[in-house]
Design goal:
Keywords: Cell adhesion, Cell junction, Repeat. By secondary structure, this protein is an all-alpha fold. It is built from 17 helices and no strands.
Length: about 300
């Protein structure tokens, strides 16, 4: 677990180690089958897989990259892959819609397992069943890492989480977790998922009211709360910028007074949250059909 956080070279060596990833996945599957999701070794295994999934799209060996992206013929190859929190550009969203999804192998081996639907379902199962904060956070974090880029792999993982594996209810429950780091990672994952335009109506219907409900009534009180608040605002921005219906949903969930309060705070400590809230307000105002409702 310690070695897996040793940087790009350490991750590369561990991903290449024959049988290592397969063994970790096998162990977690056994723990879930035996109804032992709170096992300490399971926590360690998930944390290792979380670390090995970091920047996976960028660090994949050329042979894997070619096999995953071979269908990506009409997409420019010089796209820059953004970091963990992704990009909010409309062009990227449109491009993402045209990206063909990679074909999934029925029996993945080694590094292929890291983005396979089998492991995605394992993470969602642990999020739902484990009560260990580190296990929950690592499972959410692995999914956050896998959905961070703009290529076919992150898009396919997002689609699996939202539509194929019905993962939103488990993620939504984590929005109300008492542990701040678990809540923060759940929000960051939803922020990544919300960049996919084809998934936005599902996400808004399932979690938009919950995102609004966990927005603070006043200025956030700590760095982690401030960062979580900023991520919530950007997720709501993604969900509402192209949808008047979703903007109205935010309004009916009494989100507007909260967003206004957060945006008006200009102290340095909370500038990230207030800037995100201001971006969200600007986007909400673009829905001219809602102006009279906003004014009320």
């Amino acid at each position: 677990r310690n070695m897996s956080s040793a940087g790009p070279e350490g991750r590369k060596k561990m991903r290449e180690c024959e049988g290592l990833i397969d063994s970790l996945v096998y162990y977690i599957q056994g723990a879930i089958a035996d109804h032992e999701p709170n096992d300490k070794a399971t926590e360690n295994c998930v944390c290792i897989l979380h670390n090995l999934s970091y920047q996976l799209e960028i660090e994949l060996p050329e042979s894997y990259a070619q096999s995953i992206y071979m269908q990506r013929r009409n997409i420019s190859s010089n796209d820059k892959t953004p970091g963990c929190f992704g990009t909010r550009s409309r062009k990227v969203k449109e491009k993402q819609q045209d990206t063909p999804l990679p074909e999934e192998k029925s029996n993945p081996k080694g590094v292929e397992s890291l983005w396979h639907s089998t492991l995605i379902r394992i993470y969602l199962s642990l999020i739902a069943k484990s009560t260990r904060n580190y296990t929950q956070e690592a499972s959410l974090g692995a999914l956050q890492n896998l959905t961070a880029g703009t290529g076919p792999m992150p898009f396919a993982v997002a689609r699996t989480v939202v539509q194929k594996a019905n993962g939103l209810p488990s993620i939504r429950a984590m929005l109300h977790a008492s542990h701040p780091a678990v809540k923060k990672t759940a929000v960051s994952l939803l922020r990544n998922l919300s960049r996919n335009t084809s998934l936005q109506s599902d996400i808004a219907r399932e979690v938009l009211p919950d995102l609004v409900s966990i927005l603070p009534e006043s200025v956030p009180g700590s760095d982690i709360t401030c960062e979580t608040t900023a991520s919530i605002c950007y997720a709501l921005f993604n969900l509402t910028q192209g949808s008047s219906h979703n903007a109205r949903l935010l309004l009916s969930a009494h989100g507007l007074p909260k967003v206004i309060t957060i945006s008006m705070n200009d102290s340095n400590m909370f500038s990230k949250a207030s800037r995100a809230a201001s971006v969200l307000l600007y986007s909400l105002w673009s829905h001219t059909d809602l102006h009279s409702a906003y004014k009320k």
